[in-house]
Amino acid sequence: MTRIFSGVKPTGHLTLGNYLGAVRQWAEVDQYRAESLFGVVDLHALTVEHDPGRVRRLSRQAATLLLASGIDPEQATVFVQSHVDEHARLSYLLECVATDGEMRRMIQYKEKSVRERARGGSVRLSLLTYPVLMAADILAYRADEVPVGEDQTQHVELTRDLAVRFNQRYGQTFVVPRATPPKVAARVMDLQDPTSKMGKSHDAGAGIVYLLDEPDVVRKKILRAVTDSGSEVVFDPEAKPGVSNLLEILAACRGGNPEALSGAYESYGALKSDTAEAVVELLRPVQERHKELMADPSYVEEVLRRGAERARGMAGPTVDGAYRAVGLLPPT
Ligand code: TYM
To answer: Which CATH architecture is the domain 3-181+297-325 placed in?
Structure first.
């Protein structure tokens, strides 16, 4: 059976980008067609300046939102990365296979290190090695597929390279995985700056729809989305990034494709109000279920406890095998 691994990092509140680019696909399709593991990858949240209490709160919230989105703990394994030691154990071995040049070529590293330095901060070494930990997340479970948004495909490519290199050097150990981004909304853009990704770690909130935004906040953000000085509704991400982003969001919510939908609109205003209502409707059940789950935190805790136990059982033998393969003496 196909195995899937994917994760969200608790660096901010989950966004519409996370939902359309990844989480919805996990909940609606992936968990039913494959053996699936979904992690709140909290170790990744420590790669930039962080507040310990906030990371803890966001980790709980992310886990609750995964369940609220419809991920069923009877179908899929939901867990917190730091509860399973195998991730960090394997990451070190993979650091011994990866090169620093490879790490420095990662687009997200380049962007984030520039941002950290511009803020006057220093760049944590873990930001550079982040993709190795991500590779460990995936390879520890011998996952075949990694459903992620487009921004993560370079990291999955690196994961493939590391798996192949390790297998060639030390013998067949890892499955070589592939990224499976969604067909529509693989890269949802910021509503105020439609040439950059809608990202939960960005500071500005006006261009980002959060999964837990109240309906009126969602409406306001979408109605105020930046478009362009034209008036024709056409899907053309290069020339009309704002309008194209709205069409993409609408298509993801209602089905269909953005080009076809563009024909149905004569004004930007009509497109915006339909998109706003479609997003409000999409988020409503997730928000309702989130409220119910918040009333019973012990349920979420129990799901995470069982998830971590199952995940450890799956990753343990693979990571032990990798330790032996590179020549480390087994403990006696
Ligand atoms: P993260 O937490 O930034 O995002 C979680 C998922 O949401 C997708 N995504 C988007 N998709 C479309 N449009 C957007 N604007 C958008 N923003 C985010 C991401 O592509 C991702 O699928 N490095 C990962 C977390 C991670 C991981 C892993 C993922 C760590 N280890 C192993 C898969 C497998 C990250 O930062 O995702």
So the answer is: 3-Layer(aba) Sandwich (3.40)
The residue whose C-alpha atom lies closest to atom 19 belonging to ligand 1 is 149
Q: What angle do CA 185, 25, 206 make, to 5 degrees?
A: 45
Three-state secondary-structure class, residue 58: helix
Q: Does the ipTM exceed 0.90?
A: yes
- Give the mutation target among 5, 15, 18 for probing the ligand 1 site: most ligand atoms within 8 A of CB: 18
Output the DSSP codes for 129-165: HHHHHHHHHHHTTT-SEE---GGGHHHHHHHHHHHHH
Q: How far is the CA of 96 from the centre of ligand 1 (A)?
A: 25
The confidence score (pLDDT) of residue 200 equals 81
Q: If 0-12 CB within 10 Å is exposed, 13-18 middle and 19+ buried, where does residue 128 land? A: middle
* Per-residue pLDDT tens digits for 154-191: 999 999 999 999 999 999 999 999 999 999 999 999 99
Answering whether pTM is above 0.90, one says yes
Which of 69, 77, 151 for mutating ligand 1's site (highest number of atoms within 8 Å of CB)? 151
Give the CATH number of domain 215-291; options: 1.10.240.10, 3.30.1640.10, 3.90.1170.50, 3.50.50.60: 1.10.240.10
Domain boundaries, the chain: 3-181+297-325, 215-291
Residues belonging to the active site: 112, 197, 200
Distance 332 CA to ligand 1 centre (A): 40
The least confident of 52-66, 161-175, 189-203, 229-243 is 189-203
Tell me which residues have their CB closer than 6 angstroms to ligand 1: 5-9, 17-18, 21-22, 41, 44, 134, 137-138, 146, 148-149, 151-152, 155, 186-188, 197-199
